[in-house]
Amino acid sequence: MLKISNAVVLADWEIQLSQVRAQGAGGQNVNKVATAVHLRFDINRSTLPPFYKERLLSLSDQRISKDGVVIIKAQQHRTLEQNRQDALERLRELIQEAARPVKKRRATRPTRGARKRRMDSKKQRGRLKQLRGKPSKDQ
């Protein structure tokens, strides 16, 4: 079982864990031992509350496929158990991040001083660029 919050818990049948060979360098052992973990979690079939499902499916995260399946590959650690724990922790963080409320943006206006400073710097920049031009013919 994976505890997301006090009210939300995922059962073991909802999360598919499979072991695969890790990629990259690592010596002879990396070619023989399957220590990396593929985690698959189907959002639509899960027992998550509808609020969590909607928020997860609306995320633009590369780990979530178009079908609503979360795929996480953990291969950072040397042992299978550490990679399994890492994958589950990353799934928990993804779901908790989706549940976090989005902070509303309050429209603000630049102060009069900030607008004046901006215009002054633009004028100064324009004068500098004007001096870079070719000399006139009457000189």
UniProtKB/TrEMBL annotation:
<dbReference type="Pfam" id="PF00472">
    <property type="entry name" value="RF-1"/>
</dbReference>
<feature type="region of interest" description="Disordered">
    <location>
        <begin position="99"/>
        <end position="139"/>
    </location>
</feature>
<protein>
    <submittedName>
        <fullName>Ribosome-associated protein</fullName>
    </submittedName>
</protein>
<dbReference type="GO" id="GO:0003747">
    <property type="term" value="F:translation release factor activity"/>
</dbReference>
<comment type="similarity">
    <text>Belongs to the prokaryotic/mitochondrial release factor family.</text>
</comment>
<feature type="compositionally biased region" description="Basic residues">
    <location>
        <begin position="101"/>
        <end position="139"/>
    </location>
</feature>
<dbReference type="InterPro" id="IPR045853">
    <property type="entry name" value="Pep_chain_release_fac_I_sf"/>
</dbReference>
<dbReference type="GO" id="GO:0004045">
    <property type="term" value="F:peptidyl-tRNA hydrolase activity"/>
</dbReference>
<dbReference type="InterPro" id="IPR000352">
    <property type="entry name" value="Pep_chain_release_fac_I"/>
</dbReference>
<dbReference type="GO" id="GO:0043022">
    <property type="term" value="F:ribosome binding"/>
</dbReference>
<feature type="domain" description="Prokaryotic-type class I peptide chain release factors">
    <location>
        <begin position="21"/>
        <end position="37"/>
    </location>
</feature>
<dbReference type="GO" id="GO:0072344">
    <property type="term" value="P:rescue of stalled ribosome"/>
</dbReference>
